[in-house]
């Protein structure tokens, strides 16, 4: 099979021509759907259009939470998530792409600290690897170093039980997406970087961007390619693009998520911990603090900005600050100087996350030959299965590589 | 008992002097807590400070939803809500204030249209007057005129059951608040209008406002009154005031709610109807469309503004537009020209609503002798009981006029 081409700058002539599938957005879902389309329909001409690079600077992929666990999944989705974890643990087997120096999935386990071992919890108890443990039994699973650090992170005297998924862990969403990107190109998809897409019925207008010596971004070339089917996988910008260009109203929210850092060197093998609205996982020499679903959707007019605390500016937005303040009794580690709140919004890593209706990643045919593909908060667990599902649906393939339980 | 005094403009000399209770905010909860404090502790010196008039132009009271029903209440709160309805139906009996020309509570009934008579519904089935009816049995309770209009509002072919509260209805929150305001002054509370309050430990700085001939609002007089106990009942601005003035961080949200109008003359006796994220009630010659909890809390930086629909500006914010679009199959009445979306935000009635943690109205001692009183979405049903509860707590009275079930 002849590989596709990557066009990263306007110096490379792009021949144009008609495509069967144009995918707008080279994020995790866009690259995965391109890969599966080429694998399922080898004769399909597939083009991925990305306005920036991979990972896109403004998108959700760069700052993706990157956490996997099996809790709170309805039975029909557990099989999909389990399949996604297997892919994450060995992307080479799925995509045929070797990237030996990329960070790999870390199966350190995932734990949620609970007040009591309530029946509410058992309602959400679907993961095969999930166990409900006494706090001491949980802590005894780890090395003395990790145990000591767990003791400084969380106030265990407030914890009645721990929901533990030994198969949980964290990984790099970017690395996984790159595997699919290389895989898609290897299977014959073309990839056009630094190119904006404007949508038209049956065609896509491509605006190849360039940077002048004065650092202005300009449209250096405009061309139009006919396409039989359009897939919009542009993250939180996708619904707005469909509305502005094609007049298709697709109500979906988006929110600017931020991830403060806890500047403590992580002990080896320390698990991902979830408690009181926050998930904390190690990474890059410290810990990333992942807020829960909060903040909800932001108004369309919201511009990301930091918050103020009794008048003093900090980089973390106010809604997350509120949650941090409320969770101090649970997380003593947040109270010292180790929590880096930044001084302005640029000091705190963050990005726009989509908020699909219903909470789960989804695809939806919003017009004839136009499909919206949207990830959101659950992309780490269900993004890939959703992309595969769309590709197989378009290819007319009935089976799926997971088995519903 | 000697009545209190109302100081509405700086031309009236305000003598100052110490107060036992200063209540910041002359909304529904502030006026009610003042009334109950004076009734419970006749010797207490009580001052209400309101930055505007009553109702305050920027506050939630003016645009309060004004709907009462008994669904979805936990048992402990049902008794409180039932008591609140009795007060609303006859405020004179409770407050001793006669305002015969004010709009009265309209016991037209409240109905929620459901897909099916599911068990989920029965979980929330606590009102004594609540019934679960077949749609036809529900419709047959109304006059032919009302029945016909109900048929044009909602697509009843999509409705499987109706949860009906014959004791539900709607009323004017402003009128109820005024009853309490007059009552509080009659019982001896002082009321200072057009006055901003800045908080200090043990004292309140009062800034009496005036309007110059050039329509500028200026501080015309500043004075400081000692107060033994401070109650902040300033609606969605209360937590921010406590934080900026006293450094007390009280995480709570706020949201700008808007109420589009459905320009159809209401049939007599038409009930309040709730369905698919919206409640519609008659009022002022048309219907008010009340969105559900959406939008959630807004970021602190949000400025109310209208939305855009495929590029065309409208007065209703985008989040509510999304919900309206999604509910069109349920509410055919929203589709014609009768729904008034306005052209800019000023065309659509709306105001800032508090979003207390947990959803229910609450009071909380946030420092020694400083109490936050916060209403939010459930103020129509539980605001007054919360205000009474705080007053009785401060007075050391054990009983409450409602009986928990």
Automatic annotation (TrEMBL), chains A, B:
Source domain of life:
Bacteria
Q: Which InterPro entries match?
A: FAD-dep_OxRdtase, FAD/NAD-bd_sf, FixC-like
- Signal sequence: where? none
UniProt keywords (A-Z) are: FAD, Flavoprotein, Oxidoreductase
For molecular function, the Gene Ontology terms on record are: oxidoreductase activity
Instruction: Please give the cofactor(s) recorded in the UniProt entry for this protein.
Output: FAD
Indicate whether DNA damage appears among the record's keywords.
Answer: no
- Give one Pfam family, short name only: DAO
Q: What is this protein called?
A: FAD dependent oxidoreductase
Q: Which organism is it from?
A: Deinococcus peraridilitoris (strain DSM 19664 / LMG 22246 / CIP 109416 / KR-200)
């Amino acid at each position: 099979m002849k590989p596709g081409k990557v066009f990263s700058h306007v110096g490379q002539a792009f021949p144009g021509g008609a495509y069967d599938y144009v995918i707008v957005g080279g994020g995790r879902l866009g690259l995965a759907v391109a890969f599966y389309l080429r694998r399922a329909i080898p004769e399909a001409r597939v083009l991925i259009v990305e306005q920036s690079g991979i990972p896109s600077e403004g998108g959700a992929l760069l700052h993706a939470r990157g956490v996997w666990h099996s809790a709170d999944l309805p039975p029909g989705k557990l099989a999909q998530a389990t399949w996604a974890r297997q892919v994450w643990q060995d992307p080479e087997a799925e995509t045929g792409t070797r990237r030996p120096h990329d960070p790999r999935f870390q199966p350190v386990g995932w734990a949620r600290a609970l007040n009591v071992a309530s029946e509410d919890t058992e309602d959400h108890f679907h993961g095969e690897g999930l166990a409900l443990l006494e706090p001491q039994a949980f802590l005894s699973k780890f090395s003395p170093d990790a145990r000591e650090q767990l003791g400084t992170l969380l106030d265990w005297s407030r914890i009645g039980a721990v929901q533990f998924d030994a198969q949980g862990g964290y990984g790099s969403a970017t690395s996984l997406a790159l595997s699919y990107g290389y895989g898609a190109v290897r299977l014959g998809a073309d990839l056009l970087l630094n190119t904006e897409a404007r949508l038209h019925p049956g065609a896509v207008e491509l605006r190849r961007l360039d940077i002048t010596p004065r650092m202005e971004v300009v449209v250096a070339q405009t061309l139009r390619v006919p396409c039989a089917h359009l897939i919009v996988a542009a993250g939180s910008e996708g619904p707005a693009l469909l509305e502005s260009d094609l007049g298709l109203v697709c109500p979906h929210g988006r929110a600017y998520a931020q991830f403060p850092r806890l500047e403590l060197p992580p002990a080896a093998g320390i698990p991902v911990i979830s408690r009181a609205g926050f998930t904390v996982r190690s990474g890059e020499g410290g810990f990333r603090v992942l807020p829960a679903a909060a903040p909800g959707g932001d108004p369309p007019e919201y511009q990301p900005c930091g918050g103020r605390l009794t008048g003093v500016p900090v980089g973390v937005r106010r809604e997350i600050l509120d949650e941090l303040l409320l969770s101090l009794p649970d997380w003593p580690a947040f109270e010292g100087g180790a929590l880096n709140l930044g001084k302005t919004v640029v000091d705190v890593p963050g990005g726009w996350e989509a908020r699909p209706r219903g909470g789960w990643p989804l695809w939806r045919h919003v017009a004839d030959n136009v499909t919206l593909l949207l990830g959101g908060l659950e992309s780490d667990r269900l993004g890939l299965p959703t992309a595969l599902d769309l590709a197989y649906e378009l290819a007319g393939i009935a089976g799926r590589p997971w088995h519903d339980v």
